[in-house]
Amino acid sequence: xxxxxxxxxxADVVAALPGPAWLRQSRLAAWERFVSSPLPSExxxxxxxxxxxxxxxxxxxxxxxxxxxxxxxxxxxxxxxxAAAGAPGPxxxxxxxxxxxxxxxxxxxxGATTLVTRNGGPAAVLNPQPGLQLGPAGxxxxxxxxxxxxxxxxxxxxxxxxxxxxxxxxxxxxAGCVLGAPVVIVHWLDGDGGAYFPHLEVELAEGASAQVLExxxxxxxxxxxxPLTTLALGPGASGQFVQVQLLGPRAWQLGNVVSRVGRExxxxxxxxxxxxxxxxxxxxxxxxxxxxxxxxxxGYFGTGTQMHDLRTVQHxxxxxxxxxxLFKGVVANQAHSVYSGLIRVEKGARGTNAFQTNxxxxxxxxxxxxxxxxxxxxxxxxxxxxxxxxxxxxxxxxFYLESRGVPTPAAERLIALGxxxxxxxxxxxxxxxxxxxxxxxxxxxxxxxxxxPGSGGPGAAPGGPGPGSAxxxxxxxxxxxxxxxxxxxxxxxxxxxxxxxxxxxx
Amino acid sequence: xxxxxxxxxxxxxxxxxxxxxxxxxVASGEIHAVMGPNxxxxxxxxxxxxxxxxxxxxxxxxxxxxTDLLAMAPWERAQAGIFxxxxxxxxxxxxxxxxxxxxxxxxxxxxxxxxxxxLVEEAEKTxxxxxxxxxxxxxxxxxxxxxRNEVVQLGALRPKIxxxxxVDSGLDVDALRAVARRxxxxxxxxxxxxxxxxxxxxxxxxxxxxxxxxLSGGRVxxxxxPELALELEKTGYAAYGEDEREPAGGALGGGGRGLPPSRAAxxxxxxxxxxxxxxxxx
Lengths: 506, 282
What we know:
The complex is a heterodimer.
Chain A: H1 11-16, H2 21-36, E1 61-62, H3 99-108, E2 113-118, E3 125-126, E4 132-136, H4 156-164, E5 169-173, E6 183-189, E7 194-196, E8 199-204, E9 209-218, E10 224-225, E11 228-233, E12 238-246, E13 252-261, E14 266-273, E15 278-287, E16 293-302, E17 307-316, E18 322-331, E19 336-345, E20 352-362, E21 368-377, E22 382-391, H5 395-402, H6 408-424, H7 433-446, E23 496-497, E24 501-503
Parallel strand pairs in A: 1-7, 2-6, 5-8, 6-9, 7-10, 8-11, 9-12, 10-13, 11-13, 12-14, 13-15, 14-16, 15-17, 16-18, 17-19, 18-20, 19-21, 20-22, 21-23
Antiparallel strand pairs in A: 2-3, 4-5, 22-24
Helix pairs in contact in A: 2-4, 5-6, 6-7
Chain B: E1 3-13, E2 16-27, E3 31-35, H1 42-50, E4 56-64, E5 67-68, H2 74-80, E6 82-85, E7 92-96, H3 97-107, H4 115-126, E8 136-137, H5 143-157, E9 161-165, H6 173-190, E10 193-198, H7 201-206, E11 211-216, E12 219-224, H8 226-235
C-alpha cells in the first residue's frame, strides 16, 4: 500500500488552493472521496506488476501558490537542474523550454495555439483561434469521470487530481468548427520534491474537429506527477490527440487519459512514453454513442531502470462501435514494461469491433516486459481479437542485415527503430512523426546498445529522453508502415507473454 | 583478382553432419553452379560461408584471398567481400534498403550520399519498382520482387564473391531472365565471382556458367563444365547417390516467414526431376 503520511496532503492544503467557489467545492468533494477510498495495492489485478506499493506520498509536497514551495529551476538558465525558487512561478516563455521540447513545438508550427504552464500555475494562451475556447474551466466536470456505464471506472488518481489541481485547463471547440492549427499544451515542471496535478479537458462539440498535443515534461527533479486528461467527443466530432511524456529520470507518474466518444465520432489517441522512473499511463476509451470509433496508439521505450506501466480499457457501451488498439514498446538495460488491456463489451453493444495488439521488443537480458490482454464480452454479436508478443530481436532479421555488411550493433538499432516506426508513423499529428522517431533514436542511443563497438557498452548511463544526439545515424524518411514486427509467442528473454488469443460472440 | 576457396568443409546442424568435405574454388569473373538434390547440403554450404548462426563447422576452411572467413562475424565477412543472396529474404519492418545499405556503406567507409542514385540505377537494371527502395525491406514484396531486390543489393554492394542461394526459386520466367541477365552482367563488368546454388537447370539456361559442381550427401561428387548441368537436366540426380532431406526448420532459418518454393510454371523450363521415386522437391 502506498502511504498517505504526508503533512502536505490534507484538507487544509486543498482548501487553500486558489480559484472560484465551484472549483474550491469540487476540490474538497474530491478530497473527501479520495480519503474515504482505499489506496490501490499490487494485490489488485489492475495494479499487478506495478510499483504502486513503493509509493510514498510523504516524499512529495503539493505545490500551493504563495506558500513555501519546493525549489524550482529557471528553465532558461538550466532546464536540466533544480534550484530554489518560487512556485508555481511565471510560465516560461517559448524559447526557454528544454531544447527537445522547443524542437517539438517548432515542428508543430508557429501557428499552433499554445499554452505553457509551469508547475501547474496560470499561463497565457498564444495564438488563439476562432471557435476554440482555451482557458481555466468555468464549471465542474469532475463527475463526468464517474462510472456512468457500470463498467470499469478511472482510477483513484483521477480523484486526487480533481482534489489538488491548481488550474483545470479546458479546450472547447465549438460545434461544426474545424480548427485550422493544432492546440499545444505543455506542462513544464521544475520544482524539486513537488506533487503535480496537470489537468486538461478537451471538449469537441458536435461535428467539431481538432488536433491536440499535450506534453508532460520536467526537469531532473524528484516529483510525483498525476496528470488527468479528458477527451469528450460530441456526435460526429473528430479528435486527434497525442500525449508525449518527457519526465525526468527520477519522476513518478500516475496518469490517466479518459475519452468519451459520441455517436459517429472518431478519436485517434496516442501516448508516447519516454521519461520517468516509474510512469503509469492509463488510457480509457468509452464508446458511448452508436457508430463511434477509437484508435488507441502508444509507443514506449524504457532504459536504465525505468518502468513504463500502460493499462488500457476499450469500453464499448453502444452498438456498432469500433476500437482498434496498437501499443508497442521497447525495453533495454534493466527497464521493465507492463501492458495490460481490457476490452469490455456491454450487453446491447451489438456489432462491436474491438481489436487489441501489444508488441514488445526486449533488447537486453536484464530488461523485462509483461503483456496481459483481457476480454470481457457481454454481447454475442461482436468481433474482438487480441494479440500480444514479447521477444528479443528476430535472429533472421538480424542475420539478413548482417549478411549485407551491416555491423551487428547498427543492425540491432535499425531493427529496433523500425519496430517502433510501425506505431510512430500512425501519429494523429503527422507533423511530429519525424520528431518522435528522433526522440526514440536518442533514447536508443542512450542505452549504449546499437552503437559502434567501443563507443559505449551496455553499462553506459542512460540519458534523458529527447532527440538531439549526434550519435544517432541518419535515417531516411517516408517508410511504409510495416506489418508485425515480432513473431507472436517468440521466446521471451525473461519475459511473460499471454500469447495470441481471440474471442468473441458466436 | 579475388578467390574464394572452400577446403574440406565439414559442418553440422543440431549434431547432424550435413557437409562432409566440400572442396571448391571461385575466382573473380567466374560463374560456378552448385547443383544437387534436396538435402544434399546446398543451402548449408551457402549459410556456412556467410556465417549464419546455427551451424557448426567441424572441419575445413573457407578462405577469401587467403583470409579465414570462419573466424569472422557475418557482417565482417560481408565487409570482406562476400555477399549472400538469401533463398527466403526476410521482412524487416520499418527498415528500408537505403537505411540498411547506408549502414553497410558507412561501415566500409564508402560515401553513402551516392547510394540513393546507385539504388535507382540498379533497380532499373534489375526491373525492380523504385518505390520498393524506400519501403520496409521485403514487406509486401512478391517472391520475384524479393529476388530482384537481392540482385539490386548485389549491384549496389559490389562484393568480391556472391553466393546466390536458389536465387531462381519463386521466380516467373521474366523475373528469372532479368535476374540472371543482371547477375551475368555484374560478373562480366564488375568482375564479381558467382557461386550460384540451385536445384534446377532452368537458371543455368539463362546464366552462362563456367563450372558446375554436383553436391550430394554433403560432398562435391562431380565437377565439370556446363555440359554437366545439361546431363543432369536429362538424367536427374539419381546417378549421384543419396537424396537425403535437410533437417526440417530450425537453424535453416526459414522460420515460416519465407515464401514457399515455386513449382515451375508459366512456360518455364521443366525442372529437373531428381529421380527420387516421384518425390517432389518439397
